Amino acid sequence: MKKDLRRLLPLVLVLAMLFTLLPMGASMSSAASGKNFVVYFPNWGMYNAAHMSMNVGMIPWNKVTCINHAFFTIDTGYKLVSTDEYADFQATFAHSEGWDPGMIRGHFGEYKYYKTQYPNVKVVISVGGWTRGENFHAMALTPSSRAIFIQSVIDFLKKYPFIDGVDLDWEYPGVNRAKDPNDQYDRGCPGGPEDKQNFTALLREIRQSYNNNGMSGKLLTIAAPGGYEKVDLTEPNVYSQYLDWLNIMTYDIHGAWDTITNHQSAIYKNPNDPSGTSPVDIKNKYNTDYIMKHYRDTYNIPASKLNVGSPFYSRGWKNVVAGTGTNGLFATASGAPVGNLDDPGSPGGQNSYAQMKVLENTPGYTKYRDSVSQVPWLYNSSLGVMYTYEDETSAAARCDYVINNGFGGIIGWEISCDTSNFSLTNTISGKLGINSTTQVAAPVFSPAGGTYTSAQNVTISCATAGAVIRYTTDGSEPTAASAQYAGAINVAGTTTIKARAFKSGMNDSAAASATYNIQSAQTVAAPVFSPNGGSFSAAQNVTISCATSGATIRYTTDGSEPSSTSTMYTGQINISSSTVIKAKAFKAGMSDSAVATAAFTINGGNEGVDLGNPAGAPATGSISHNNWDGDGVYDITMNIWWGNNATSWTVYENDKIVLSGALQGNSPNAQTAVYSVSGRANGTYTYRIDLKNRFGTTSTNTITVNVTNGGTVQTVAAPAFSPAGGTYATAQNITASCATEGAAIRYTTDGTEPTENSAIWSGALTITQTATIKLKAFKTGMNPSETVTAAYTIQNNQAVATPAFSPAGGTYSSAQNVTISCATAGAAIRYTTDGSTPTSSSAQYTGPISVTGTKTIKAIAMAAGMNNSAVATATYTIGSSGYPAWAPNTAYSVGTIVSYNGSNYRCLQAHTSLAGWEPSNVPALWQQA
User: Fold this and answer.
1) What CATH class has 444-518?
2) Cα(783)–Cα(462) distance, rounded to whole angstroms?
3) Confidence label for 42 from pLDDT (cuts 50, 70 and 90)
4) Cα–Cα distance list, 708 to 565, 629, 654, 658, 922 (Å)
5) I need a labelling partner for 908 at 20 to 30 A (CA). Which of 183, 188, 663, 853 fits?
């Protein structure tokens, strides 16, 4: 019996291990219950407008089944760590908790919240990626190093139970890749043949640790290569049993590292693909169809476990050689254009899909589609640029491929590259049947938008029970991250409210909008002058005040009625001659004040008298201050110790006149005058004084006063633009706002800094061509805001007319004076004669171009606010002596005589001429006649 028991024991242990290691539980069955739509979310997207400055709340949660958070990495101690602690755990978002122990902020605070709203959507931590897999090989090398990593994963999942598992993006086991010296973020990814078994062991041990820690429901997935030769370095037939699914990276198949343009993510192979077949069969096996079936059929992985990759970005080439390939596809090229996702120092032609949509509508670009591979490409023949990418049509075809072949679903790299309305995401979720067929009812406003004579308390309701309403008041579209409606919104001035309702398991509602125009019956109080006009023997410093808090005062001194664009009152007005001041006060949501008027008559101007006998300009005076305690109240004292006195003085504070008045002198005795200062805020102030009499002017020394215990003057909030600066295909209506109530926004469009005398922003500004706007906000009693700048590039659909040559290109017996014209008034023409494509830096056409010999002229026309014209080309061949001019691409027979550059040549051998084969440099074919 003992012998028999010993023989049975290994079998019992093997069975026990199998039951322990098999990936059992809900996570394994959930992948097969419906199609997966896995999207990567980049934690760095929040920093970059090309990534929509994206945060977790902007993800369309009801359209996806799983979110892969990219990226965590493995440190040198083999533990799981974030690549950006600030973004992941510290940044402030809509649902960030506090700073007390146990509270969560950053992206993970958002995950915690949204998992309560969308509990069926999985959130997985992706580890590694192309640039951060430097420690995979060393970590997987031994059981002890693997155990350290796996324990850190278990600890992490225990600490953040709302996270559903991990996704390993090791690119790639078995490959030893050095870091890219042109990529500052890339750390390379060491590897060796031992990775084959170690990778399998790592996945097996993670699954076992899940089961041992009561985490059998946690997900374990990988990003798997789209190149078959890399797949064959591992054991997919073994390790797949431990995985919930494999995300196959069926993109980046081709890129600017190739010298022939191609598709980065072809669904099916194209027989015309010029790629090689050895040592790697790229032509036949680098496509989605082949690699997916390679995993399924060669390694017997269930199709339901295999997800197909979809790129939400482009790859591109520049220097595409015209005449090669077909419309830029399968064409000779070198290098990559700089995309909006690229590091300019190491570009890959990587544009977000949102940017590709812009380029699709940019003149010069033509969109094509490969009916065999079922993917599009974009080509600009003038620029020599080609892009390969995914669009809604190819994404739909990719989904059909998944459905027809029983594969698990789609992975999208990555969600922040989609358009602002998530057109790729919506296409994929709709095709896979993920998005709900039921839509939340649109919000309803009460009262409805309209014109009212008083402030309104606006309520928003939704007929869908349990829906959450989100709203904005800045003109932007509401998203799942916008402010949540919690009660009546008080509208005291003209305001547009936009609202959208959300509910887990349903499609978001349509956006509802209501504009409220509040024409308040309340009138701003009339301004008050101090002093209130009259006759004075010396210059006066006039102040203007208004009893209505937050009102802005505007004034004139030329007799005209003040308006909202008149000079804004910001401090004392020095009146040194007879003047009439008119003032009016303004405040948003209230009627403008009545006009206040004050007339000042200055008798004798600023000049006093000298009772003594001056003989020249005032003696040089000196000034001092008594602000020893650093408060904002002090005196500036001027002394002329002896000599000629002054009969007027002008006091400058920070190089601005704050006082100009008369003085009484008694030359040549000493003279003293005091300027009293009060109410200064903390800061540094400089003072000097100009002293004047009938003989001339002298200046005192300059002193500095530091106020450290004075009052605090608040600064006006910086204005904000809507929409933000950027590149747009059509004209834009730009609005500006300021969070400081009652502040007046001033602006310029000529590049200068806005001042209190610049144009006032009074409504939307329509931008029809490229422009730079600068804003600055002002309010009486406050420091002006910082200057805010936004540049708008308008790429409208109107293009400059194509230039025309006269005479047209052709063969002529004598030199020609070629003129170039353009039907678009005011357009500038640029041209080249060396065969290159003209640009804005090429020679500008100013008059006839003399052409002798053979010459090709290319021209392009440009005008502000319009797209550049198409390139026009004309080739001129000038003959002589009555013989035809030599020309390329022409069949010649023996004995033919041609003219070339003023000389005649006889053909010695029948041939067809080629560009560059000139009679003068091919003596075997031609002889001078």
Assistant:
1) mainly beta
2) 43
3) very high
4) 36, 8, 17, 21, 87
5) 853
Buried b (16+ CB within 10 A) or exposed e, 322-338: eeebeebbbbbbeebbb
Give the pairing type, strands 219-224 and 245-248.
parallel
Assigned token pair, 446:
């009460």
The predicted-structure confidence for 481-501, as pLDDT tens digits, reads as follows 788 998 889 888 788 899 988
d(CA 815, CA 820): 16
Binned at pLDDT 50, 70 and 90, residue 16 comes out as: very low
- Look at the block and give the residue holding tokens 């390790």: 239
Tokens 């410093």 map to which residue?
Answer: 541
Q: What residue type is 470 in one-letter code?
A: R
Query: Could you give the CA distance from residue 815 to residue 831 in angstroms, rounded to a whole number?
Result: 19
Architecture of the 720-794 domain:
Sandwich (2.60)
pLDDT-derived band at 3, boundaries 50, 70, 90 = very low
Q: What is the CATH number of domain 35-312+390-431?
A: 3.20.20.80
In this prediction, residue 73 has a pLDDT band, given cuts at 50, 70 and 90, of: very high
pLDDT confidence of residue 10: 33
- Tell me yes or no: is domain 622-707 CATH 2.130.10.10: no
pLDDT in tens, 300-311: 999 999 999 999
CA distance 600 to 575: 8
Q: List 667's β-bridge partners, or say none.
A: none
Domains 35-312+390-431 and 622-707 share a fold: no
- With tokens 């600030």, the residue in question is 86
Terminal-residue alpha carbon distance, the chain = 113
Strand, helix or coil at 55? coil
Phi-psi sector, 920: left (phi>0), alpha (psi -120 to 50), beta: alpha
pLDDT at 689: 95
Domain borders along the chain are 35-312+390-431, 444-518, 528-602, 622-707, 720-794, 804-878, 891-928
C-alpha 577/C-alpha 607 separation (Å) is 11
Q: Does 2 score more than 50 pLDDT?
A: no
- Between CA 888 and CA 886 the distance in angstroms is 7
CATH of 891-928, one of 1.10.3720.10, 2.10.10.20, 2.60.120.10, 3.40.50.2300: 2.10.10.20
